[in-house]
Design brief:
The chain is α/β, with parallel strands linked by helices. It is built from 14 helices and 14 strands.
Length: about 400
Amino acid sequence: MKILVINCGSSSLKYQLIDSNTEEALASGICDRIGIDGELKYQPAGCEKNVTKVAIPNHEVAVKLLLEALTNEKNGVIKSLDEIQAVGHRVVHGGEKFSSSVIIDEEVLTQIEECVELAPIHNPSNIVGIKVIQNIMPGVPNVGVFDTAFHQTMPKKAYMYGLPLKYYDKYKIRRYGFHGTSHSFVSKRACEFCGLDPKNSKIIVCHLGGGASISAVLNGESIDTSMGLTPLEGMVMGTRCGNIDATIVEFLMSKENMTIEQVMDILNKKSGVLGITNGFSSDFRDLNDAAEAGDELADLAMEAFSYSAAKYIGGYIMSMHGVDAIVFTAGIGENDHIVRDKITSYFDYLGVEINPEVSKSRGKEVMLSTPDSKVKVCVIPTNEELAIARETVILVNNI
Ligand code: AMP
C-alpha cells in the first residue's frame, strides 16, 4: 500500500510517500514558505534533492505541487494518483477526545476543530491540510494521528495541574504531552532492540530535538511526560524555556513594559539554549563547536539542557519504581554524544555504564551501555512518518 504522510504547519507542509510493504519512503520533501513566496523540495529515494522556487500562495497549491512532483514523468515515483491508497495526517492536539488514531470523517473533523483552542498555532494548519486533501483527492481515506494520543494513558495524578479544579472542568486545562507518535514508536522499538517484554518493561524515552520531551513508558503505556497543555512545559529546549516560575511572566511584563504576546513570544522562541547563549544559537552543532572553542555560555546552555533532562529521567525512575532502558532519539538524542554523556553521567549511581567504543555513534540504532550496565542505554532513531503510515495502514485495512 502506498501511503502519503502529511505534516502541515502554518507556512510549511512536509510530506513522504511510504510503501507500507517495504516501509521505505519512495519520496519525501517539503513545501516551504507557503503564503510568503514558496519553495518546493522534492527528493525521490536514492536521488538528489530537487529544490524549486515556485509561488505557493496557499496549502492547496502546495498539495497540488507535491502531487505533481510525485507523478512527474521525469523523476516521479508513481504513475498516477490512484496509486496513493490513503493519506496519514499528523495532528498536533487531540485533547481528551482522541486516545488513538482515527479515520477522519466530518464528525472527527469537527472534534479536531474543537481542539483548536488548545493548540491555536498548530491545529488550524493541520485542519487546512486535511481539507485540502479531501478536496483534491476525494474518496481517498484520511487518517489523523495525534501527537497527544499516546499520552492519554497518563493517570490523573500525573496530568492534573495544581490549579483550581474549575479550570480543568471548564477548559480542560491539564497536561497532555506531545511527540506521542515518536515516544510510542521509539519505546516499542526499544523493547525489541533490548529484548524486553513490552508488557513488562520500564522505558524512559528522551526525545531531544528542536522541541524536547521525556516520557515514562510503563508496560507499553505512557504514564508521564514532560510537555504539558502546550509544548512549552518541560525541560530546557532549543528556543523554549521549559519550566519556569509563572511569576516571571508578570515580572517581565511590568519591568520591560511588554504585552503578554511579547512575553509568550520570548518564552517560546527566544529562550532555551538560544536564550542562555544570549541569542547565539539553538543548534547543538553550533553549541558543541563553540563550547569546544572555550565559549562558556555554550557550555552552560548544554549543561542546563542536560541537567533539566536528567531531573525528569530521575523523577520518572521514581514514578516507575525502576527503569530497564533509557532511550535517546531525535536530532540531538541521535547525534550529540556530548549531551548524551552529560545526561547519562548523572546515572552512574544506578550502575549505568557507557561503552566508550560506541558512545560517539551518530544517527543510528546502537546500544550505548556495556553488557554489564545495570540499566540499558540506547539510541533508537525516531521515524514519525513511518509510525503515521503504519497507523494509517491498520485503520484503512479495517474499514
Ligand atoms: P529535530 O527537531 O529532531 O530535527 O532535531 C533538531 C536538533 O538536532 C537541532 O538542535 C540540531 O542542532 C540537532 N542536531 C542535528 N544533528 C546534530 C549533530 N550532528 N550534532 C548535534 N546536534 C545535532
